[in-house]
Amino acid sequence: MAQIKQLIIGFVVILLFSQKSSLAQPVPALEENIPFLVTFSKQAESKWGDDDFCQVFFFQIPQDFKDPIYLRVFDPDCGGQHDEMNVTYNSLTKYSVYGGIGCISDEDARDPNPIGNYKSGNLLATKTFGIDTKYDNNWYTFGPFNPSEGELSKKYGGYVFKLICEGIKGDDGNLYRYYMTTKPNTNISVEGGNAFTFEYTFRLHSDPWQTSHVYPYIDDKVVSLMQSNFDWDNDGYIRLFSISSLGTNLSTSGDNNWTQNVYRVTQEEKGKSMDIQFTKDDKNLVNNNNVVFYLTNQYGDLLPFYTVPLGGLHTPKGNMKITEQKKK
């Protein structure tokens, strides 16, 4: 009964997106229903739910947008109301904004592992936070930035900025959110803007009736998907919804390990976004569960997750069956 209820909720979310588009650059977006992004500092054990202690997000601005933009971080410090303490707060978290040539076009910038030249482009701003009561449960603003300070990318639809969060010292978990805005002290969305990442590390809700979502875009060259998730803790279900699938169960990982499996893409799924849903099992509740997730195509290239789904989400056609793929 619980699984049926979650499938119905998932169908409703797809229906809503098929009827309207979103105009917002909060990260995570409201529709994703993800409480926080998570980055642990590098002395933490990976079993806490972060495999590499680094998270990279990109912000896209239309080429014809001329006004200055700002990148804001909610609760950037590590310590206080939202963050995850190990023994005692001892962590430093560094946020860095990049633009210019190579910001996203450099292959290392899109790699799920922070190796090589992932800090490509021009460093525009940076700040490191420890325990800072001024910014606990509050916003810090980077900018202003001229849109042309980003990297102009035809592939990603305009000027692109990169924001890297790194846990550089300590062993605690920093929980935070982002917003791209036209004002320094207020969150006003950039019309036509978007935000995306190639690897998501985020906190799950503790409530089993709260489902989180990520929205990968499937272009016309994608034949199959390899999904990878880390440290799911056997905490429920990960399901793929699309125009062809009313809830394909994906393989899920245990504690401190990865799992993968392949999904074959249908022709009608191309040029649209999928809805991948993360739902806790009400019989196996894990508090403060953090998970890492990414997708690659048949060539091993990573697919971006957009906060505003590209191409829209579409309801399944005909009599779709609920399918299940066995865990490895």
Question: What does the secondary structure layout of this molecule look like, with pairings?
Answer:
Elements: H1 2-19, E1 26-27, E2 37-40, E3 54-61, E4 69-74, E5 92-99, E6 122-129, E7 139-145, E8 151-153, E9 158-169, E10 173-181, E11 194-197, E12 200-203, E13 211-214, E14 217-218, E15 224-230, E16 236-241, E17 246-250, E18 258-264, E19 272-273, E20 275-280, E21 290-296, E22 305-306
Antiparallel strand pairs: 1-10, 2-10, 3-9, 3-11, 4-7, 4-10, 5-6, 5-9, 8-9, 11-22, 12-21, 13-20, 14-19, 15-18, 15-21, 16-17, 16-20
Overview of this structure, please?
- With 328 residues, the chain is mainly beta.
- The protein contains one helix and 22 strands.
- It has one helix at 2-19, and strands at residues 26-27, 37-40, 54-61, 69-74, 92-99, 122-129, 139-145, 151-153, 158-169, 173-181, 194-197, 200-203, 211-214, 217-218, 224-230, 236-241, 246-250, 258-264, 272-273, 275-280, 290-296, 305-306.
- The strands form five sheets. Strands 3, 5, 6, 8, 9, 11 and 22 form a seven-stranded antiparallel sheet that branches. Strands 1, 2, 4, 7 and 10 form a five-stranded antiparallel sheet that branches. Strands 12-21-15-18 form a four-stranded antiparallel sheet, with no helix packed on it.
- The longest helix is centred in the first third of the chain and has 18 residues, at 2-19.
- The radius of gyration is 19 Å and the shape is globular.
- The two termini are 25 Å apart.
- Mean pLDDT is 89; it is low at 1-23 and 318-328.
